[in-house]
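Researcher: Please predict.
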Amino acid sequence: MPKWLTNPYVLIAFGIVFVLLILFIIIKNKKQTKPKKQTQIDTLYMEKLLSALGGKTNLKTVSHEHQRLKVTVKNIKQVEPETLKSLESPAILKGKELTILIKHHTKDVVSYLNEHIGEE
């Protein structure tokens, strides 16, 4: 066995390099597994949401509070709860007002729906 391998300083240096290498690999893997932020909301999502709410003519008012979308509809029977479930948008019904949790870009969704209120 070479003499330099028995030197304690060399063994400590190898240990430090090994630990740093392991830490580097762990940190690199954590960065890769972070979910990417959604930069733009999908227009298909908004179209499906509009359809699930009963279409353009069924919307009365649309507003938001943080990530909650408040929608008042004319006819609650036109709302499609199964479509809302497929969009992964939990909804709470109170009278003719739906409160829907929108995970990203709530303001964009409100703008889109407000542009289409009452259109034929």
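Model: Residues 43-115 form a domain with the Gyrase A; domain 2 fold (CATH 3.30.1360.60).
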